[in-house]
Amino acid sequence: AADWAKASLDAVRKVDGELEAFLTVDEDAALSRAKATTTGQGVLAGVPYALKDNICTQGMLTTAASRILENYIPPYNATVANLLNDAGGVLIGKTNLDEFAMGSTTETSAFKKTKNPYAKGRVPGGSSGGSAAAVAAGIVPFALGSDTGGSIRQPAAFCGVFGLKPTYGRVSRYGLIAFASSLDQIGPFTNTAEDAAIVMNAISGYDKYDSTSAKVEREDFTQDLELGVKGLRIGIVRNLPEEGLNPAVKQAVDAAIRKLEGEGATVVEVDLPHSEYAVATYYLIAPAEASSNLSRYDGVRFGRRAEAKSMIDMFEQSRSQGFGMEVKRRIIIGTYALSSGYYDAYYKRAQQMRTLIRRDYEQAFEQCDVILMPTTPTTAFPFGEKSDDPLAMYLNDIYTIPANLAGIPGASVPCGFVDGLPVGLQVLAKPFAERTILRVAHAYE
Ligand code: GLN
């Protein structure tokens, strides 16, 4: 275990100067953890890993990549951090993200710009860009991220690794710094579906500290891996919105579907008639919840406090100096959507549309076991390309957002390259059918 931790820490020293995937690395803590692990702890004993820096770690800086939390050291561990500890995992460090997980490129981090390991001039995706890059660069065999509208699947696609967003409620959110509580879900980045199944075995399960945690039986996520896809029904979406979809990405995904068909799966067409409203719906609900969740950062209870003459001034200054542009944009949109005069017109309508989108998926999964589509419309794009155009940035999430609105699980599976950049095949299934997703991914790999 100690050798493995050392190898991982050496890899940080060697590549992370340029890659900038990590915000915090605690060598001493990692080495002493490694020495304390015993094989009896199971398959994760001594395995180095990283956590996105919005997952609380006791005694270790947890910033959410925000100035407002730049000096925040949590007094407790997130449930997932405890579970990985118990399973013998060795935490190497905390990874970069878009500030408070708001973004699709990791560019809104207040601290650094993580590079895509395949092309240093391009974004790693986001918001869990640091975790995706750390696995893709071989620094750690797995890392955790969080996915509110695609933040595990999209960077997994851009960095050419496997990423899974579990069913809402499957993995405890206790100790995850909240962005949009009804959408947030923690999940793994790995090299293979099998590795993801092993990590899922360690991190999933009911948690009394998370009131939205699902009371479902623990299961062995590796159980169905070898079943293959023979007889499985693959749904492909009729009239999938194709605005901005790179034809080469579409080709790579079509080829992946044909490969699975060749292995005995059958393809059926399904309808998701409300897909075109998903992005608009998400960008009301997510900012609304964010505006409420972020009201706790007032300079009093957490992190940074600005010098000021009066208390109100202190609140104002702490928040103006502590939050970046994208976070402020979301707080303003969310506060507006929730204000009494506009609540019915925006927030309520968005909730109604969310129900319709969830029903679309329920109906589609009566006809198929999984739905396949691209994870993202394009491959990783250059830094700065979309950072001045929030709408173009938001449209990048068109294929990932519906899973969060519907609460269903989804994964991104590497499915080839376009011009040297990885493409992701997205695999969606009905609630709690992660095993079917892992089975399809494993058959494809
Ligand atoms: N890119 C989306 C957003 O900016 C999703 C982020 C996420 O999943 N955390 O909100």
From TrEMBL:
InterPro entries in the cross-refs: Amidase (IPR000120), Amidase_CS (IPR020556), Amidase_dom (IPR023631), AS_sf (IPR036928), GatA (IPR004412)
GO cellular component, one term: glutamyl-tRNA(Gln) amidotransferase complex
GO MF entry, a single one: glutaminyl-tRNA synthase (glutamine-hydrolyzing) activity
Entry's EC annotation: 6.3.5.7
Reaction catalyzed: L-glutamyl-tRNA(Gln) + L-glutamine + ATP + H2O = L-glutaminyl-tRNA(Gln) + L-glutamate + ADP + phosphate + H(+)
SUPFAM superfamilies documented for this protein: Amidase signature (AS) enzymes (SSF75304)
Keyword terms of this UniProt record: ATP-binding, Ligase, Nucleotide-binding, Protein biosynthesis
Enzyme class: ligase
PROSITE patterns per record: AMIDASES
Active-site residues (renumbered): 52 (charge relay system), 127 (charge relay system), 151 (acyl-ester intermediate)
GO annotation (BP), single: translation
NCBIfam families for this protein: gatA
PANTHER family: GLUTAMYL-TRNA(GLN) AMIDOTRANSFERASE SUBUNIT A (PTHR11895:SF151), TRANSAMIDASE (PTHR11895)
Family: Belongs to the amidase family. GatA subfamily.
Assembly notes: Heterotrimer of A, B and C subunits.
Protein name in the entry: Glutamyl-tRNA(Gln) amidotransferase subunit A
Species whose genome carries this gene: Alicyclobacillus acidoterrestris (strain ATCC 49025 / DSM 3922 / CIP 106132 / NCIMB 13137 / GD3B)
